[in-house]
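stage 2 :: seqdesign
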């Protein structure tokens, strides 16, 4: 019952609930050990396209393939979880310094191209990933998740598989974009902008 409640039935990976618990405990241990903790968010590019083209069974097989590929490129005490439909999260802990972190990140980067067979078809899919590091980019789960999400959003603009580590300029760009959207909404609400639509 515990396993069923804390794992994803399709991939057998930890689910969002178990991952959140491990993430919180890893950050608590980091305070005592002064080591580095890294959160990586991974997204399957064009997953809907695979589902629409080959069917949901192919989509399920792709998710299983991604889960195995990501699990093979991390260390045994790291955590790979399925935290959404086509979203995965990786927790790297007990890292002594940035150079040892880079070697793990390089292995993950090399695993972001996924190739699998479905019936008579060979399907090639790319993954996008965004990473945030504690304590450099935050000390709480929420701050690190926001930073990793910004890095993921930034890297998804690229047409190839890639992993981006959060930089402060990502946050500034997101803040400027949100500010612009807020100003535009306020202008429409105050009738300072009158939108007209044409076919």
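stage 2 :: out
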């Amino acid at each position: 019952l515990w396993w069923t409640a804390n794992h994803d039935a399709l991939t057998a990976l930890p689910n969002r609930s178990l991952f959140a618990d491990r993430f919180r405990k890893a950050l608590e241990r980091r305070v005592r050990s002064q080591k580095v903790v890294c959160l990586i968010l991974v997204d399957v590019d064009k997953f809907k396209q695979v589902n629409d083209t080959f069917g949901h069974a192919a989509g399920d097989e792709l998710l299983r393939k991604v889960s195995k590929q990501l699990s093979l490129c991390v260390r045994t005490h790291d955590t790979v979880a399925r935290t959404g439909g086509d979203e995965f999260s990786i927790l790297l802990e007990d890292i002594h310094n940035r150079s040892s972190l880079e070697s793990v990140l390089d292995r993950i980067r090399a695993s972001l191209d996924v190739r699998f067979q479905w019936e008579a078809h060979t399907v090639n899919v790319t993954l996008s990933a965004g990473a945030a590091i504690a304590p450099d980019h935050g000390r709480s789960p929420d701050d690190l998740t926001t930073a990793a999400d910004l890095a993921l959003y930034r890297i998804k603009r690229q047409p190839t598989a890639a992993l981006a580590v959060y930089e402060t300029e990502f946050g500034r760009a997101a803040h400027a974009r949100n500010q612009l959207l807020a100003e535009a909404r306020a202008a429409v609400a105050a009738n300072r902008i009158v939108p007209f639509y044409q076919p």
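stage 3 :: structure notes
- The radius of gyration is 19 Å.
- The first strand starts at residue 36 and ends at 44.
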